[in-house]
Model the fold of this input.
Amino acid sequence: MTEILGEILQVGFFAAILRIATPLILATIGEMFTERGGVLNLGIEGIMLLGSMAGFSAAYFSGSLWLGILAAMAVGALAALLMGFLTVTLGLSQHVSGIGTTLLCTGLAFFLYRLIFGQPSVPPNVEAFQAVPLPLVSKIPVLGPMLFNHFALVYLALLLVPAAAFVLYHTPWGLSLRAVGENPRAADGAGVSVAKMRYQALVLSGMLMGAAGAYLSMAQFNAFTFGVISGRGWVCIALVVFGQWSPWKCLAGALLFGFVDALQLRLQASGVIDIPYQFFLMLPFVLTIVAMGAVSRSATPPAALLVPFRKEER
Amino acid sequence: MTSARTPLLCMRGMSKSFGAVRANQDVDLVLYAGDVLGLLGENGAGKTTLMNMLFGTYAPDSGAIEIEGRPVTISSSADALALGVGMVHQHFHLVPRLTVLDNLMIGRPGNRGRLDRSGARQKLEEIGDRFGLRLDPDEPVSALAIGEQQRLEIVKALFRDARMLILDEPTAVLTPQEADFLFDALRAMAGDGLGIIFISHKLYEVKAITNRAMIMRRGKVTATVDDIGSVSERELGELMCGHEIVPPQKAPSEPGKVLLRLKEVTTAPGAEASGGAPLREVSLEVRAGEVLGIAGVSGNGQLEVAELIAGVRRQTAGELNVTGEIVIYPSPRAIQDLRVGRIPEDRLGTGLISSLPMADSMILPRVHAAPFSRYGVLDRARIQDFVEGQVERFDIKCAAIDVRTGTLSGGNLQKVLLARELAFDPLVVLAAQPTRGLDVGAAQFVHERFLEVRAAGGAILLISEDLEELFLLSDRIAVMYEGRVMDTLAIEEATVRRVGMLMAGASSEDAA
Done:
């Protein structure tokens, strides 16, 4: 037991939590926005993968990591537009459209990667993002290395949370979005374009999901692999429910997942507990299910989630 | 209303078709500042279509709209709002989970990118002062009573500086006292120079609140009344239906033995969060040859009473006695076998099955028994005889007896239900909102059938939110509030005021 605690109570461990949680924060906040507007974006897993691939490729050829991030966001936005066309313009089932988008994006990511890079024996890689210690604060003992010595994207993800809360609760756009997700007819009656709001939220979510994917292939790792997302998108769907569609609670969910994932990595590496490593890999996902079970009963989704809106109904 | 002034609103030659249905044909409408214009017509007369064109919900096929003399094109509700047109729909357009204040600010520009909550709060207070429309800004809409929600809808329009306000059947959901309150506010607004269009098919309300009226029938304007004081309610009604109205005559009641009795019935809270109130020690009695009316604002337990007696809901305490038999395990079939006919509130949801042929809908509850089936096989010839007989008796307008049920109009659907439920001489008839959405002719047909059942010694439990209907048919009126029966009044001692106070939860002493 003390050995386990010894593994946990290390500065590096806490830093790892933030590193692991970052892509989840980005994608979960993105998903939260679309769901607040009434659209469940199950394309998340595929969009993250495609973003990861596109970002990596752009960075590989341009030599600029930030250009890679922008490319990932642009590709994510495009995929989200497709999702918007299916669910908002055509009013199709959000479940089916989302799974379709994920399958399409997954296939595209694999196909394009092969087309661009072929099947090299050594996978191409990029010089990944380096940690940016923040001046002054990173020198604080313990707290400094834990919180203030990270990739730039980690800081951005953390800043995204209060920004999202502000936008959602203190701007006309956020209020319109919530109205659209709760009662689109009321929003429409108040002069808000339901379709426009939903498209905007989807594009925003696609950009964040793309960035989340790119983080994995350019910061957490330095190459694109086909298993790079491995279910993290689906975890984000669960985290939105766990987070009850609130930015701060979504952050808490992402950190909890990050904690368990970091823990299982440590335990695996330390060999303190001698069981097959697959059980450790399972741990964060099992926790997701348990946490969901505990919280989701009291979570009320936006009332118009999954409901297509048609303007002239008669 | 001097015609020399520029009208606030002028609609000319408005037409709109939906497929083969000509919902509006060449309709003209003029509204002046300070006007309360009554827009009167039966269901399907085209009132709502006309207003939806004004509000940008439907694009007109032809016609022109002028606001304060300027030609305008309104292609969305945003356009309408920007031009000062506010609309209070029958079904409120509110977001229950948001506060009153946030509901007001949806779609409003912010102050340098931020929501201007303090400015909105101030404006809400001003509107409250000016028209007596007060609301708590921080209350979530889900906690507001129906009357308050409607107040919020009106405030929403005023908040956007509407200069004309359209109200679509605004009193349908209100108690009489709430309706009076609404009328006071409308008068204050008209006095302030707003133009108001009041859509209704309730004649006494149009008489009470409007100064002019326009009557529509089958998509056309059939009459305009420039001075509402110059016509009687009855004349208005005749203009609306296009023929004379003779109210059905009710013979004096001769109550017989008790056919339906609820004794201190309590039900468990329903799982559904959608309003409704569990019953709390409800006692009711309906005798043979009697109509017991149940009044109450929607969601105060009326639906629960109907479902209990229909056998789809069970009591947790108390006793249900139908035609002298105590029903311990109610089921729809057991209840039906006791000769209870049921006209549910939701015609196409719980009453009939939209996708089935009309003939099958009409026999559905009795498919298992003679005369419609023998040895588990449907007897199509007998079914056809029965249905054709009922179609004729109840004057159901349908192309063939096997048309899809869902294609029938509201009035014909209700006739199908009546034809089904009244076919085998029921002892008890349970009717919920039997004339909601029906035009005057169809409603009268329904009323006449009920009075026939009553004359034949049947007991009728009539649940209605239409007080006029309740006072017309009932021998006694029970008023429900939050799952309790507040009082049961004999029709002779019942007044609209008294029933209204009980509906709002006043004790029977206070209401007396």
